[in-house]
Amino acid sequence: MRDYELIFIIHPDLDDTASNDVLEKVKGWITEAGGSVNKVDPWGKRKLAYPIRKQNSGQYFLLNIQIAPSFVTELERNLRFQEPVMRFMVTSIEE
Predict the structure, then answer these.
(1) Spatial strand order in the sheet of 55-67
(2) Cα–Cα distance between 68 and 36 in angstroms, integer?
């Protein structure tokens, strides 16, 4: 298992219930793969540096996770197919 940071931006017009559903879905993928979610940090709605899908803002979430390196590509593929997720980035935390 390796430590990673996952940050993703979801559509700004989603209500709290819908955004929590997306968050729970992402956390479910991680735990189903044998990983763990160590910290969830919702940053809230923020202005984007440039428009994405004709939107000027988005809801940001930062997750500190532990997953196997082989699962990173599958996690990225799952995030890519989620309609509310506008952008995401997974980075390794080196110790």
Answers:
(1) 36-52, 55-67, 2-10, 85-92
(2) 10
